[in-house]
Amino acid sequence: MNWIKNMGGYIGYIIGAVIILPLILVAYNYFFINKNDANSILKPYINNSTEVILNVPYFVKSNIPNDAPVTSKTFTISMATKNMGRDGSKETTLRYRLIYDDLNNKYYQVTMFDLYNDFWKELDNNKVYGKINKEDLANPKLGTKENPILVFSVRGINNPLIEKNMNGILTNYDTTLEQYKYNIYMYYTYVMSKEEFKERFEKGK
User: Fold this and answer.
1) CA-CA to 94 of 20 to 30 Å: which in 19, 36, 47, 152?
2) What is the edge-to-edge ordering of all strands in the sheet holding 149-151?
3) Which has the closest alpha carbon to 90: 12, 186, 16, 195?
4) Which sequence spans correspond to the domains of the chain?
């Protein structure tokens, strides 16, 4: 009889791990993890973008009070089952640098997701071209320190005469198209609130 009781316990554990827990996690992901339909805006967002010149100061001499060279934030983008019932979370890391344009009196935010290289070091104390959505650029509510204009792609970091590694090979830190799309997708899917997303992209539809 004991083996029957033990078997019942095993069956209950399996049902909980294989059926009930995944359903709970699906509900958790749906109701508690912010997720907007960024795929629907990705192509028009990119097509309606332009480049602006960003003069990135040496962070020690930055004209933004209490400016840090890079700020990092971590976001949970999903919960998943692992190893028969133990929970696991999948996270993404957002890193950004605020840049103040004193000529136009606007703040920009260079924003990258899960980028683990020397990009930020090379960006510092440099003149680069940032890709910006035209609607954001024209929005009078954006450009403040609290609501900076988002920059998801940067080019022009490299100086081919000096930016070489120890083997004399040029390392390209310009944002690839894949990274550009990824930055847009991750920010508008998981970082921007549902209310902001509706106001920005779905108003009037």
Assistant:
1) 47
2) 71-82, 86-101, 106-113, 149-151
3) 186
4) 1-32, 35-202
